[in-house]
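Work Package 4 report. The design task specified in the project plan requires that, given a folded chain encoded as structure tokens, an amino acid be chosen for each position. We show below one input record used in the internal validation round.
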């Protein structure tokens, strides 16, 4: 009989521990993380994308063709040691036979790169950058601006580091590009 009571205490402790861990993770995803509302200042839509371990906040956007956008990407890795992360936007994932994205570290994981031919302004310079992506070390941030190109439809963003493992672990998001407002 005593063994049954001990087993019940261990089981109750395990359930309580699991509930606390689940609650903490849920709180982190809903309350504790900074959220991006996309403020508009002087006609420019400002967004911040926070890179955590295997997920982005926010994980979706809606933009309109012709909108001016300023994105700040921030690596907020929480692991020990902290992980570098990447951000690129594209369509149609290029995969290998095992289903993993075909990329080591750059934006070549997409058949179509969103920024192909799109002038990007960063660090006071403007110009198109083929296969544009942002790779950051923990604690770093990078801000760039662009005008949403006439490429309506569904686009994805993701991190392809560690031979695509970050993407496979869920580090991805979606962008819905709509026609210009009033068009």
């Amino acid at each position: 009989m005593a063994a049954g009571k001990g087993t019940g205490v261990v089981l109750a402790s395990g359930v309580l521990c699991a509930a606390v861990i689940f609650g903490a993770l849920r709180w982190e995803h809903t309350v504790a993380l900074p959220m991006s509302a996309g403020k508009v200042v002087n006609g420019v839509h400002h967004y911040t994308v926070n890179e955590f371990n295997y997920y982005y906040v926010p994980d979706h956007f809606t933009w309109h063709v012709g909108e001016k956008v300023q994105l700040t990407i921030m690596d907020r890795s929480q692991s020990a040691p902290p992980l570098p992360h990447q951000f690129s936007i594209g369509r149609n994932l290029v995969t290998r036979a095992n289903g993993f994205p075909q990329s080591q570290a750059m934006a070549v994981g997409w058949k179509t790169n969103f920024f192909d031919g799109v002038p990007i302004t960063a660090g006071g310079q403007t110009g198109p950058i083929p296969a544009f992506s942002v790779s950051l070390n923990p604690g770093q941030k990078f801000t760039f601006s662009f005008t949403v190109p006439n490429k309506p439809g569904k686009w994805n963003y993701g991190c392809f580091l560690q031979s695509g493992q970050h993407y496979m672990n869920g580090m991805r998001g979606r962008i819905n590009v709509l026609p210009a407002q009033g068009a």
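Confidence is low (pLDDT under 50) at residues 27-36. Validation will be extended to a larger panel in the next phase.
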